[in-house]
Design brief:
single chain; about 725 residues; alpha/beta; Rossmann fold; 6-stranded parallel beta sheet; nucleotide-binding; hydrolase activity; ATP-binding; helicase activity
């Protein structure tokens, strides 16, 4: 191996030293930020643990001591909970008859062990209505990590790898910095130095990109921390990101980890954990159970992901797709019901760097040609799949709502079977894989692994043998099993295209310049309303899971249409003018209802001053002009005492004012976010991000008129309904 010139080595080592310094700085800043979060987290965990300990009976101390501790005398003296024993002084306990120093030490040691376990495993619940100093401090600490975005973990891992390698390579390469130093080093050290120089050269091959990644993450971490008010505002804007970090930084006990891994056999779970997951093409951080789900799909190749409704099966699928494409896959295919096709396209583009192609409707042929030529992820419907020829290059087939193909005799099932036969990796996604009979579940498994049930009979061999047989192909996590890790809030935008009647009503509203009529045009003809159809589907799913639902709209007539569309009895609607006592009676009846129930509420009424924590599904019939109006409404259900994670579904229509309004709100929120990172002015309150400009309605109407080619012959006619919204009916 020919030794490089000394000058070249010196220049190489200077560059390596700069990169090493940058990497060390990022690791240090990240460590400081994490330490601040943990420091802020400790008192909150302690507070919540104490509240839980006050509900734990003192008899639990006997379990911790292996039955050696007699707790009867403690209970008789009024020490009925673990907290009461923990807070008692040694003198108070030893005054009790039959309690000596040894018994007292055993009791309080056992109580402390329970308290420590609770503090280490509990994830704090953040209530936007209870902004105490400790929680504010936690949000301020979390802000630095949240603001750095989903690229921070990759930058941190890159920095750790740079430090690990350069800490060794730079000293080994130093003998070649000068000819005298090299001469004195001896042949063995010179040979190793030359090898080190070669390794450093390879490490610096992508130096510019690596330094940019590290520098951007470091810059984000060094931004000034916000004051408490701004931290709460940011939390309301992206609560899921905060909860995601809390879950990552909260220790998981063995039972929690087993639940997040679907209680798979230990050997299989260990194999899944070892599966790499490349995040270079992904734009979202994963929760622990979501990362495991993506790894499961990759490691097992042909599987069913059967997570409970709302646990993020789409994000897990996109994570698996992003990994494969980062590792060389060129083409992937998603098949789904037409009602969620738009969601898939938007989620792929928002959550990854992958190109998505819509193989449905007008332009299908051109989109298919572009997909085949350039690669990416094609999204088609069940009805469209049978007309699509299999493509050998497809690296993964994702089948959403896979229970649609449980009947192998249908055309769509046969099309899916044909594709499954020609693709190596297949991911079925369904929250209801076995709706009626065990055979339905068997049908899905046969698409993936035909021999799975060759030696197992679910009815004769029992559930345990059945679960063991399907473990390599089936993963399911339930809400109640992973609730300690889940964030408290998950937002899902539901995009539904106008029906013909919807589109006609919308165009008429645009033609008349009626801003409020445009907002509710999707419900103008309830019999054919696409949004109402999706709303019914969401309510039906919630009913199947026994979940309570609250439906919000700004408009009374929309709520009337929703009530009539659902058919079954509903509670409410809560509306303006309803007496406070009557409002509370409606809420109490909704809360007391056994199992599934639906409450209708005007968002400006039900979103303020009521506790709707009985609901774990929130449906927003249309986007609101003010972001805080939505967040306040959601906070009625997402609050302390909520026993289930809250799912928020916002019904939207593409190519309409819904899309335009969202873009305007997001732009304002982004501007506010950039502003808030750099200043702490007093006027930065929640209202600063509300889209409340008087010209907003006029702007949207004008732009929609231009897009639809509507000729406004009487501009004065639209001034009233645009600038001053018409009364709500």
């Amino acid at each position: 191996m020919e030794a490089p010139a000394a000058g070249e080595v010196r220049d190489l080592l200077r560059r390596a030293a700069r990169l090493l310094g940058d990497a060390r700085e990022l690791i240090a800043e990240d460590g400081t930020a994490v330490a601040e979060v943990r420091s802020a987290l400790d008192p909150i965990r302690g507070r919540q643990a104490r509240a839980e300990l006050d509900a734990v009976p003192v008899s639990r101390l006997k379990e911790v001591t292996g039955g050696r501790l007699r707790t009867g005398v403690l209970e008789e003296a009024g020490y009925t909970t673990v907290l009461s024993v923990l807070q008692a002084t040694p003198y108070e306990l030893q005054k009790l008859p039959g309690v000596g120093p040894k018994t007292r030490r055993q009791a309080q040691s056992a109580a402390q062990r329970i308290a420590t376990a609770m503090e280490e495993t509990c994830t704090p619940h953040i209530d936007v209505e209870d902004r105490d100093a400790e929680t504010t401090r936690l949000l301020v600490a979390l802000y630095r990590l949240v603001a750095a975005g989903p690229h921070l973990p990759r930058a941190r891992r890159t920095s750790e790898e740079v430090v690990r390698r350069l800490n060794v390579l730079i000293p080994e390469a130093r003998p070649l910095r000068g000819w005298i130093r090299g001469l004195l080093a001896g042949s063995r050290r010179r040979t190793r130095a030359a090898q080190a120089v070669e390794e450093i050269t390879g490490l610096l091959a992508d130096e510019t990109q690596t330094r940019l990644l590290i520098a951007q993450a470091t810059t984000d971490l060094l931004r000034p921390a916000p004051d408490g008010t701004l931290a709460w505002i940011d939390f309301e804007l992206r609560a899921a990101d905060y909860y995601n970090l809390l879950a990552e930084l909260s220790a998981l006990g063995p039972s929690d980890q087993a639940a997040s891994e679907g209680f798979l056999p230990d050997d299989l779970a260990e194999q899944i954990r070892k599966q790499e997951l490349d995040d270079s093409l992904r734009r979202v951080s994963l929760r622990g159970y979501q990362g495991f789900g993506a790894r499961f799909a990759l490691a097992q190749r042909r599987v069913i992901l059967g997570d409970d409704m709302g646990l993020g099966k789409t994000i897990q699928a996109i994570a698996a797709l992003a990994h494969l494409h980062a590792r060389g896959t060129t083409h992937s295919l998603v098949v789904c019901p037409a009602s969620v096709l738009i969601n898939w396209l938007r989620e792929i583009e928002a959550r990854s760097s992958l190109r998505a192609y819509r193989l449905h409707g007008d332009g299908r042929t051109l989109a298919q040609a572009a997909w085949l030529e350039h690669g990416g992820v094609a999204v088609t419907t069940y009805d469209g799949l049978h007309t699509l020829d299999t493509v050998p290059a497809v690296g993964m087939l994702v089948v959403d709502e896979a229970h649609y193909v449980k009947n192998p005799r249908t055309r769509r099932s046969q099309a899916v079977a044909r594709w499954c036969g020609g693709v190596e990796r297949v991911l079925f996604m369904t929250g209801t894989p076995m709706e009626n009979r065990l055979d339905e579940f068997r049908s899905l498994v046969r698409y993936l692994r035909p021999g799975t049930f060759a030696e197992v009979n679910g009815a004769d061999d029992g559930a345990l043998a059945f679960r063991r047989a399907v473990a390599p192909v089936y993963l399911r996590r339930n809400q109640k099993d992973v609730v300690t890790e889940l964030p408290g809030l998950v937002h899902m935008d539901e995009w539904e295209e106008f029906s013909a009647a919807d589109a006609a009503a919308y165009r008429d509203a645009v033609d008349s310049g009626a801003f409020m009529a445009m907002r509710r045009a999707a419900y103008a003809v309830p019999e054919t309303s696409a949004k109402l159809e999706r709303l019914r589907e969401l309510v039906d799913k919630a009913a199947g899971a026994g979940l309570k639902v609250v439906v919000f709209s700004y408009f009374r007539d929309v709520l009337t249409a929703v009530g009539e569309a659902l058919g079954s009895p509903v509670h409410g609607p809560l509306r303006g003018g309803l007496e406070p006592e009557r409002r509370q009676e409606v809420v109490d009846a909704f809360t007391a209802a056994t199992g599934h129930a639906v409450l209708l509420a005007q968002i400006q009424t039900g979103g303020v001053g009521l506790n709707l924590q009985a609901a774990s599904v929130v449906i927003l019939c249309e986007p609101q002009v003010k972001p805080t109006l939505e967040s306040q409404a959601v906070a009625r259900a997402h609050r302390m005492g909520q026993v289930r994670r809250v799912q928020v579904h916002r019904l939207l229509t593409p190519d309409s004012m819904d899309e335009r309004l969202l873009r305007i709100m997001q732009a304002k929120a982004a501007l506010f976010d950039a502003y808030a990172r750099r200043s702490h002015l007093a006027e930065s309150t929640p209202e600063a991000i509300d889209v409340s400009d008087e010209t907003l309605a006029e702007q949207i109407v004008r732009e929609e008129r231009q897009r639809l080619g509507v000729d406004s012959r009487d501009p004065a006619r639209q001034a009233g309904p645009c600038g001053r919204p018409e009364p709500i009916t």
